[in-house]
Amino acid sequence: MGNDTGNARLFFALWPHAEVRAALAAWVHSHAPALPGVWVDPENLHITLVYLGSVSAETRHCVTMAATKLPFEPHRLRLDHIDYFVKPQVLYAGASVVPVPLMELVQRLRAVALSCGVQIEDRPFVPHTTLLRKVRTRPHDAMAFPALNWPVEGFALVESQSLPTGVRYRVRERWGTSR
Ligand code: 2AM
Questions:
Q1: CA-nearest residue, atom 2 of ligand 1
Q2: Is residue 128 helix, strand or coil?
Q3: Ligand 1: nearest atom to the Cα of 11
Q4: What's the pLDDT score for residue 178?
Q5: Which among 41, 51, 44 has a CA at the least distance from the CA of 15?
Q6: What pLDDT digit, counting tens, does each position of 43-69 carry?
Q7: Sequence-separated (6 or more) residues with CB below 8 Å from residue 62
Q8: Chain segment 83-119, per-residue pLDDT in tens
Q9: Residue 79 to residues 10, 51, 84, 92, 110: CA-CA distances in angstroms?
Q10: Which of 34, 49, 138, 150 has its C-alpha lying 20 to 30 A from 60's C-alpha?
Q11: Domain-embedded: residue 2
């Protein structure tokens, strides 16, 4: 578990408004009972932009200061389908189109991480909200998903905490026009 002086497990993310969170949670409630897997707690729903992993207080300060200087352009992201990642065995809501301002934001955040000495995974950015984990096999049938407009008004630095009750994500910093 992180604290102010020790290491913390951090990631940059899009953190949803209450309406987007409720719409995603509603989909999970109506479809997940028919699916094998573990539901993501509605309070934890998000889109990871850059995963930093466990970092020191010094590194956390570095990425926070650097992120504060980034330009940010509000835009909209359209989540429009349900898909499955084989290796991590997760079912997610994805976006067929990555808006240019979002791609730019991810590239800048990757540069922030590298400038602070954080090694990050160099794989293509696939915007997604994980809805279920431990889904052992790809669901056979395509699943309906009512397209959801996600107003991207800011981004966040989030801490992943392991509590006795499970993993909990907590927003530590926010940038952009959403407060
Ligand atoms: P996800 O975005 O596919 O759900 C916190 O662990 C978040 O960071 C999760 O949402 C997780 O997956 C994402 N993440 C990305 N890379 C990760 C990694 N190497 N280890 C753990 N989580 C990672």
A1: 48
A2: strand
A3: 8
A4: 56
A5: 44
A6: 999 999 999 999 999 999 999 999 999
A7: 115, 116, 117
A8: 999 999 999 999 999 999 999 999 999 999 999 999 9
A9: 24, 20, 14, 10, 23
A10: 150
A11: no
CATH no. for residue 137? 3.90.1140.10
Pocket test for ligand 1, best of 9, 11, 14, 109 (most atoms within 8 A of CB): 11
Which structural domain range is residue 83 located in? 8-176
Q: How far is CA 145 from CA 23, 46, 80, 151, in A?
A: 10, 17, 7, 18
> Does this model's pTM top 0.90?
yes
pLDDT tens for each residue of 26-43: 999 998 888 889 999 999
- Count of beta carbons in the 10 Å neighbourhood of residue 127: 24
Locus of tokens 């090694």: 119
The answer to whether residue 3 is domain-embedded is: no
